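Below is just one:
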Amino acid sequence: MLRLPRFGIVTPTRVEDAVAALATPGARVVAGGTDLLPNLKHRLDAPPVLVSLARLPLGHVTRDGASIVIGAGVTLAALAEHPLIAAEMPSLARAAGLVASPILRNLGTLGGNLCLDTRCRYVNQTEGWREALGRCLKSGGDRCHVVPGGQTCVAALSSDCAPVLVSLDAEVVLHGPAGRRVVPLEALYRADGVAHLTRAPDELLVEVRVPVAPGPRLAAYVKWTVRKSIDFPLISVALRFDLDAEGVDGRIVGASIVAGALASTPRRVRKTEALHGLRLADPATADAVARLAGAQLKPLDNVPYDAVYRRRMIPVHVRRAVAALAAGAS
C-alpha cells in the first residue's frame, strides 16, 4: 500500500487568503486531488502544506460579452454536461467528458486539468523503482532516460482540456499577491517538464476566458488510449475550423490544430494557412489536415507506448475526426 506523506492543510474561503497561504515555501494547491494525491503517494513531491480550494467560489460558468467565463473550480463532469459549453464549445465538452472515469470527473476540476503535472514512463513509478533505474531530470537526477544526453525534461502534459482551449484561443486569469493578471493559456506552459507552468508558486489560476466564435465554426477533439476510460491520452488532437458559411459547404478561413501528450506544452501545428479555401465536404480536406498534422507531430518515448506507432496513429485519428465533422455538419 502506498501511503501519503504528512502535510498540513488549510481551507480558505477567499481567493486572497488562498494566495497568502501559497506564500509558504513548497505549498501546493489541491482541488479534486486526482493528480496531486497519487503523485504524493509516489513521493514525487512532499509539500509541507496543501491549500484546498474546496470552499472558494470558483464554480461559475457565465457569458461575459463576447467571452465565456469558466471558474477554475468547475468540475470536469459539470463542464461536460453544461448546456452553454455544449452549445458554444462542443470540443471542450467532449474533452472534459473523456477524462478518466465518472468518479474522477466528479472530483477533478478544469483548473486542475490545466495545471496537471507532466508525466513520463520513467518517473511516474514508485520511489524504489526510480532509485533502481537511476533518477532522471524530473526526479532530482542529471540524466534523461527518454533523450540520452538531453538537458531538458521532456515529460508530457497529458491534459485533455489544454489542447482544446489553446485551439480556441483561451486566456486564463491568475491571481497573485499583486492582484489579477490575464495571459493567453498557451503562455501558461513552457518546454520544461520539470517546471512546465509559468505561473508563480504563489499565484492561483481562478478563471478561464474563451472568446465566442465570431462566425460559423466546427471543432473536434480526438483522443486515443488503449482503454476507453481511466487512461491518460497516448495521442490527443484538438481541431478548430472557422468557415465562411454555415455547414460543410463553407470554405475554411481559419484553422487551429493543437496536440497534447507529446511534450510539456500543447503542441500547435504550424502552416495551417495551407488549409484555407478548402471545403470540409471535400474528402481531400481530411487527407490534407491529416498530412499536415502527421508531418509535424512527432511523439517521443515519454509515455508507456511505442512512439513509432503513436506517430502513425496521429494522421489516422485526425483524418477520422475531420471526416466525422464533415458528416455531422452535412
